[in-house]
């Protein structure tokens, strides 16, 4: 089996200082997508060259210490593309790694909060969602199998956050954001975690204040979505809530290695 994992690390250099990265890489995944790397390749230094882990990285062009995604993979990808469009590419939010017939999209979706939590970034967030889905649909049209993993910055249903009624006006649980995820599912993308676990209380992000993680007052906003063509190869999905080092925890899928063939 092949394990493919995603983790919003909330700063890769900080994660390394906490000595949390190497144990996770050694825990079994073969492909690891990181989000919110928040550093350039030069700033990362040796972190970009862990032994036995080929590395690809894209950072935000305009804002140092902002956004960024990275891919650690024991499998050498055939290609890694980061282009979605000029207004998105400057924020360093996307890697499309192709492994044979499999495309792994490592994505840090925008947060809609904006300045002073005014939700003024929601239109940008939704346009990112739509542009990416259009791009991935084209890859599916070429006969490729797509896994979309990352921090989606949206809790889909009430079961996906501890306090839904308190967050009806909060970006990440707005009706228009949840409706966009509905569109993805209607277009043949599947929430792999919910394929195996229908119950409540499973979250991937916790506010760092008020002991939220200890009390499990969180949100499930990190996903691995599988397109219909990839779903038969998915054998398990997990949220690794015991893995510390970030305000998010990793999520993963275990897939049949034939997914690349």
Task: Explain what this protein looks like in three dimensions.
This protein is α+β, with helices and mostly antiparallel strands and 261 residues long. The chain has a single domain (2-260), classed as 4-Layer Sandwich (Deoxyribonuclease I, Chain A). The protein has 8 helices and 14 strands. It has helices at 12-17, 21-25, 41-44, 86-89, 122-141, 175-186, 192-196, 212-215, and strands spanning 2-8, 31-35, 55-58, 69-73, 79-81, 94-99, 102-108, 145-151, 189-191, 205-206, 218-219, 222-227, 234-239, 251-255. It has a 6-stranded mixed sheet. Strand 6 (94-99) and strand 7 (102-108) form a beta hairpin. Helix 5 runs parallel beside helix 6. The radius of gyration is 17 Å and the shape is globular. The mean pLDDT is 95.
Q: What tags apply to this protein structure?
A:
alpha+beta, globular, 261 residues, 14 strands
The helix/strand series, from N terminus to C terminus, equals EHHEHEEEHEEHEHEHEHEEEE
CATH domain topology? Deoxyribonuclease I, Chain A
Question: Would you identify the regions where 5 or more consecutive residues have pLDDT less than 50?
Answer: none
Q: Please tell me what the overall shape is.
A: globular
| Strand fraction | 25-35%
Largest sheet: 6 strands, mixed
Q: Give Rg in angstroms.
A: 17 Å
Report the average pLDDT across residues: 95
List the helices and strands and how they pair.
Elements: E1 2-8, H1 12-17, H2 21-25, E2 31-35, H3 41-44, E3 55-58, E4 69-73, E5 79-81, H4 86-89, E6 94-99, E7 102-108, H5 122-141, E8 145-151, H6 175-186, E9 189-191, H7 192-196, E10 205-206, H8 212-215, E11 218-219, E12 222-227, E13 234-239, E14 251-255
Parallel strand pairs: 1-2, 7-8
Antiparallel strand pairs: 1-14, 2-4, 3-4, 5-6, 6-7, 8-12, 9-12, 10-11, 13-14
């Amino acid at each position: 089996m092949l394990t493919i994992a995603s983790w919003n690390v909330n700063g890769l250099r900080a994660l390394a200082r906490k000595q949390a990265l190497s144990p996770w890489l050694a825990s079994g995944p073969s492909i690891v997508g990181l989000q919110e790397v928040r550093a350039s390749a030069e700033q990362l230094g040796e972190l970009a060259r862990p032994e036995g882990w080929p590395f690809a990285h894209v950072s935000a062009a305009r804002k140092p210490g902002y956004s960024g995604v990275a891919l650690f993979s024991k499998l050498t990808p055939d290609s890694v593309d980061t282009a979605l469009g000029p207004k998105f590419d400057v924020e360093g939010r996307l890697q499309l790694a192709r492994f044979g017939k499999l495309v792994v999209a490592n994505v840090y979706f925008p947060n809609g909060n904006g300045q002073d939590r005014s939700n003024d970034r929601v239109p940008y967030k939704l346009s990112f969602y739509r542009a990416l889905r259009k791009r991935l649909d084209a890859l599916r049209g070429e006969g490729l199998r797509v896994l979309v993993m990352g921090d989606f910055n949206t809790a889909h249903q009430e079961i996906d956050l501890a306090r839904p009624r308190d967050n009806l006006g909060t970006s990440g649980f707005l009706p228009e954001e949840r409706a966009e995820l509905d569109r993805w599912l209607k277009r043949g993308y599947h929430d792999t975690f919910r394929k195996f676990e229908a119950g409540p209380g499973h979250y991937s992000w916790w506010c760092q204040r008020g002991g939220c993680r200890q009390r499990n007052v969180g949100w499930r906003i990190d996903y691995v979505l599988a397109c219909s063509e990839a779903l038969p190869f998915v054998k398990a999905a997990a949220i690794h809530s015991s893995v510390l080092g970030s305000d998010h925890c990793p999520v993963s899928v275990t897939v049949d290695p034939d997914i690349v063939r």
